[in-house]
Amino acid sequence: MEKINLASIPTKIEKAQFLTTLLSKNIFIKRDDYTGIEFSGNKIRKLEYLLKEAKDSGCTSVITTGGLQSNHCRATVAACVKIGLKPHILLRKSQEVINQGNLLLDKIFDAKIHFCTPEEYRDNRDQIMITIAQDSISNGEKMYIIPEGGSNALGSMGYYDAMKEIVKQEKENNISFDTIVVAVGSGGTYSGLYSANMVNNYKKRVVGYAVCDDSLYFTKKISLINDNLSHYLKLDTPIDNNLIEIYDNYKGVGYALNTQEELELIKYIAKNQGLILDPVYTIKAMNGLIDMIKKGHFENSQNILFIHTGGLYGIFSKGDEFQF
Ligand SMILES: *Cc1c(COP(=O)(O)O)cnc(C)c1O
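Above: the input entities. Below: the structure tokens describing the complete assembly.
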């Protein structure tokens, strides 16, 4: 499988000294928030594969979907513009539309924005994208459809590669991570990391923290992506899905919603560790990791690698929720 090179990779891995002292475990952060200013975050690794297929199939435009402040949509928009595809995005209009954060960037990049209600998003988003793609034919466009989060087998190749990148960095730096921790929103990132771990027998524990839906939903969804990936990779035996480990008890009050405790944790980590986590994904995963270490659920882990999947722009639409 081929890809287009867009992301600034390999991304660096840093030791988080404050968290290491706090938790009595070696905590490292892989800075996938550094994949590029416009592309920042995890989605660009998936898009390198997806947009290659879009280009190769002669498409002139792309449509994808997400929340109003979707990092995935913003990264898709930025990448499309860069390689000469017209970006369309279908956004879930859950609240008042304010030109901030990712949405502001979508507009600056001149994306064609379509809105739908939360109900339409839940029940019909794929069908709505298909309709938009069909309508676009009359404008002379050929549209490539990317599912929510870019989470299909092709997209997850981005994190299949990222796991190999991590192992290469382990060798270069003479360190071994026994545990990988990541936030889960549509499953593709986890799927790629998990699959590479299983196929190459790296023997790491891969832990995911759901920010929406629940463990069962993601275990099924990720298993399906892994099954498709097994076909893609022409594996003799399909990827074993029995070690998928997703927790759903740290998603808090809901997707893209925050408790005051979560916002305080963002501030606490910022002022002590010099690291900004995002309010939608990484703070929930970090909250889960800290709590579960304290409760003894990481007894066998010594060197933990937390993937910082980005999302910085999402913080700017939440300025009024922070208390100072
Ligand atoms: C999308 C996203 C995730 C989750 O990745 P999935 O592949 O959708 O599970 C995590 N963190 C950030 C910042 C994201 O934008």
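Note for the figure: Residues 41-43, 71-72, 149, 151, 183-190, 278, 281-282, 309-311 surround pyridoxal-5'-phosphate (CB under 6 Å).
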